[in-house]
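Page 47, continued from p. 46.
Same chain as before, 94 aa.
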Amino acid sequence: MSIPSETGSRKLHPKCLLTELEDGTGVVLNLETKFYHTLNSTAVTLWKSIERGTVSNEELAQALVREFQVEQAQALTDVEVALVEFEREGFLAR
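Result:
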């Protein structure tokens, strides 16, 4: 599997809608497929960061370091795994 590129064009698909829940997790409805997906709090943080325009893996990892007090290396791995999943589920616009 390839990791989505780190270009300035990384954007969330406009037909994927996030509802954040009180516990920090979330539910995404993909209007094209009509499927719901659950996101853990890490994925919600990444989603919101991408929504605000954060595009580089390093910047996304920094958001995880700030939010969850994890090491940078672990955060970067988590970003890469999440982005592969976001791509696979169609959450990222092409």
